[in-house]
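Budget justification aside, the reviewers requested a transparent look at the raw inputs and outputs of the sequence design task funded under Objective 1. We therefore reproduce one unedited record. The lines immediately below are the structure tokens for a 270-residue chain.
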């Protein structure tokens, strides 16, 4: 089994996505979508951005490597009566079957950054976008104390065995020089790439930070793996207390949880 696929099918990301819906809607509002547009949401999960994209009337295809999330997305689309929204299984490294220049916008919010071959991802996102269209990515930023998920993943990976040789950290998608190099190889000059810092919110009015961390522990593949490894070394409590400390320090709400998380928003004009 492809380890990238196995990682995301391991848990149930819908439980984490439930904390991210408001920001998913906000990012879609900021994109200037019109009903005549055709939009790809790559690494779409169960549709945090794909569902609000489709609510604008645009034709939307969500592609994700995890079968369970594709199924969950199609269920949400059906329940919402969104007939112009389809979810399908696919790999951001190789969008075989997707024609060149199919989309006005190829969006990926914390999705394609997790695919293992970043140069292939950049090439594929550019290939399937129409000339004059846009690629937009949301990427967590490494070593930024305000980028909640990057911090959570940093703590998690410090409890996990080292990755196989040649592994490229997803966090490199949060570094401008890598982004310019990757899209450069895909034929996009530096002047057509812009990057700004933006904020995503993890919101759960009915959950404490401890309960939010518990959700990551039970449902988020990378954190589940970290707890499994930590358990073998008797370090489960240490991992838990570091994650809890992070969530408590970043929480801005007095009732429940609201954690702002800085990310890099990348726009590529194709
Ligand atoms: C952090 S989740 C984000 C999901 C969604 N974009 C959201 O904002 O709720 C990462 C998603 O990327 C997907 N993913 C990881 N590697 C992928 C790949 N190679 N191709 C397509 N999707 C991938 C995962 O299955 C997962 O749904």
């Amino acid at each position: 089994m492809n380890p990238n696929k196995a990682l995301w099918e391991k848990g149930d990301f819908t439980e984490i996505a439930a904390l991210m819906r408001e920001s998913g809607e906000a990012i879609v509002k900021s994109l200037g979508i019109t009903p005549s547009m055709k939009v790809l949401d790559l690494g779409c999960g169960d549709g945090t951005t794909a569902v609000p994209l489709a609510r604008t009337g645009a034709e939307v295809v969500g592609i994700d490597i995890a079968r369970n999330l594709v199924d969950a997305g199609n269920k949400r689309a059906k329940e919402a009566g969104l007939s112009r929204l389809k979810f399908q299984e696919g790999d951001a490294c190789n969008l075989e079957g997707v024609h060149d220049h199919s989309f006005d916008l190829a969006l990926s919010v914390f999705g394609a950054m997790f695919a293992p071959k970043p140069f292939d991802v950049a090439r594929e996102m550019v290939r399937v976008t129409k000339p004059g269209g846009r690629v937009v990515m949301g990427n967590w930023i490494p070593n930024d104390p305000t980028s909640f998920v990057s911090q959570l993943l940093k703590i998690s990976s410090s409890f996990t065995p080292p990755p196989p040789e040649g592994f490229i950290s997803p966090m490199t998608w949060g570094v401008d020089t890598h982004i310019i190099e990757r899209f450069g190889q895909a034929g996009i000059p530096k002047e057509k790439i812009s990057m700004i810092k933006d904020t995503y919110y993890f919101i759960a009015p009915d959950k404490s930070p401890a309960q939010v961390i518990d959700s990551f522990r039970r449902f988020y593949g990378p954190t589940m793996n970290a707890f499994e490894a930590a358990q073998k070394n008797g370090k489960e409590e240490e991992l838990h207390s570091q994650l809890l400390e992070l969530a408590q320090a970043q929480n801005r709400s007095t009732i429940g949880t609201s954690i702002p998380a800085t990310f890099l928003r990348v726009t590529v004009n194709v």
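The mean pLDDT is 97. The two ends are 34 Å apart (CA to CA). Computational costs for records of this kind are itemized in the attached budget.
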